[in-house]
Design a protein that fits this description.
By secondary structure, the chain is an alpha+beta fold. It has one domain. Strand 2 and strand 3 form a beta hairpin. The longest helix has 22 residues. It is globular, with a radius of gyration of 19 Å. The protein starts with a strand and ends with a helix.
Length: 267
């Protein structure tokens, strides 16, 4: 459902930020798009569009029986994280959903070509996908997304809105960090795969690699020790995938945060 959230400003927005800054908050994630920012908690998501509108929705729930099943729970969480983008009533349009679906299914066809051709096609598809994802103001809004989430985590939403502080545009929990982990995990899984190639091999390897990476990612994020070294490549990549956002772009991301937190705090 679409809601005009820009009307909730001034004293009302300040009161919401004051309340949130003094309250323990749920973990937030997000994604940047050319036309706005998605912010999500475990229960809710909001897409703040640059035209001033907001799309609000509920996040899918992880089935209880999957919560203790390694790999499967990781894949489920990964699917849930992109739900605001791929669901029929979500953020992406029909064309974009078709493109992303084709990208996800493409590895099935790689089994019918040589290893060299498969590698070339894989790189070409990756470059094309990155160009598609990072078009427009996405890099700047990616930085705004990280800043808004950091503001929530640091209890500085109000101060960030008023430009009194400027939280980091880099994030340890960014999907870029996940991508930096999944690439070596996929290469290792491909090298260690003990069975002869078959039609289903690319799909199984992809699912196995994604599941393993999600488990590793959660362990690394919860660690405060030397394991955090695994996040450094992703932080390095964020220098390419983020740009310093404008004040308006930061406030756009903060608006999406406000939409999610309003529902979380009132629940």
């Amino acid at each position: 459902m679409f809601r005009q959230f820009w009307r909730v400003h001034g004293a009302k927005l300040a009161a919401l930020f004051d309340r949130a800054d003094s309250t323990p908050l749920p973990a937030l994630g997000g994604m940047a798009r050319p036309d706005g920012v998605v912010i999500a908690s475990e229960r809710y998501f909001a897409f703040a569009n640059r035209d001033g509108s907001i799309l609000e929705g509920d996040m899918p729930k992880l089935p209880k029986f999957l919560r203790r099943v390694p790999l499967a729970r990781g894949l489920a969480r990964l699917g849930m994280s992109v739900s605001p983008l791929l669901r029929k009533d979500g953020v992406a349009g029909n064309t974009e959903r078709l493109v992303l679906t084709a990208v996800f299914l493409a590895p099935i066809g790689f089994v019918f070509v040589s290893g060299t051709a498969s590698l070339i096609l894989g790189f070409a598809m990756t470059i094309a996908l990155l160009a598609w994802i990072m078009r427009g103001r996405t890099l700047y809004l990616h930085g705004a997304e990280h800043r808004a989430i950091a503001a929530a985590e640091e209890g500085q939403l109000g101060a960030t809105w008023e430009v009194q502080v400027r939280p980091s545009r880099f994030s340890l929990r960014c999907g870029t960090n996940f991508v930096a982990l999944v690439l070596p995990v996929t290469l290792i899984a491909d090298r260690l795969w003990p069975f002869a190639p078959a039609l289903w091999t690319p799909v199984v390897l992809a699912m196995l690699s994604l599941g393993l990476t999600m488990e590793l990612w959660r362990v690394v994020q919860s660690s405060t020790g030397s394991m955090r070294i695994f996040l450094y490549p992703g932080l390095g990549l964020q220098r390419l995938t983020t740009r310093e956002p404008t004040i308006d772009e930061t406030r756009l991301a903060l608006t999406a945060v406000a939409s999610v937190l309003r529902r979380e705090l009132d629940a």
